[in-house]
Known about the structure:
Number of helices: 8
Bound molecules: SN-glycerol-3-phosphate, magnesium ion
Shape: globular
Order of helices and strands: EHEEHHEHEHEHEHEHE
Largest sheet: 8 strands, parallel, barrel
Radius of gyration: 17 Å
Amino acid sequence: MKPTDWRYPRHIAHRGAGKLAPENTLAAFRHGASFGYRMFEFDVKLSGDGKSVLMHDATLDRTTSGHGRVDALTLGELAALDAGSWHGPAFAGEPIPTLATIARYTQANDFHVNIEIKPVPGAEYRTGAAVALDALVLWRGAAVPPLLSSFSEVALEAARLAAPDLPRALLLDKLPADWLDRLRRLDCVALDANHRELDAKVIADAHAAGFKVLCYTVNDPARASELLAWGLDGLITDAVDLIPPGK
Length: 247
Ligand code: G3P
Ligand code: MG
């Protein structure tokens, strides 16, 4: 992807719609969309039988009616879980979406996606390859490709080998001295950093080296304005109700 091919909105809803609906569910996407958001970040890992599903944690306990590791259950078993009641009764029975569900929903609505590859520990390579291949098939023919990201450089390298043409962003919670070299090694199009690591110089340095810059998770409207004024390309937020996405 050349920098001129970057066609993503600057505002990106985190885990669907942040904290206003159960994260990483279709209900969250619909909620984010109701505030005008047209791009969504979400977390994907593999079920025990190797299917791509939306889930942040390695375990099911916090956000579903299940227990234990996500990869201890098959997709069929995950489909029986309630991923909404933990958030509130309005979302009782909300299912765990597959990546295919989200591909269908977002493309039908002309929404853009940032797929965060979030492997369970020990499954980094396998998850990076499988999610990238699924994304390649599910978004084949889409006007704008999904943006893949990960904190795992192993997963991103696997994604690069499996689907070299899908754009990649490296997630970094702290910026190491060699962050530009890491982006180059993985042939990334963007840096995706904790917003606390960013200032005008880092954004300018990334741009000068040919990279876009995204950051997470910005929930203060004043901080969002500051980052966008510095030329930030993608702002990932929970505060879909407080930070208007604009055009
Ligand atoms: O993709 C950016 C952001 O989602 C990374 O943090 O833990 O919310 O997945 P986390
Ligand atoms: Mg995430």
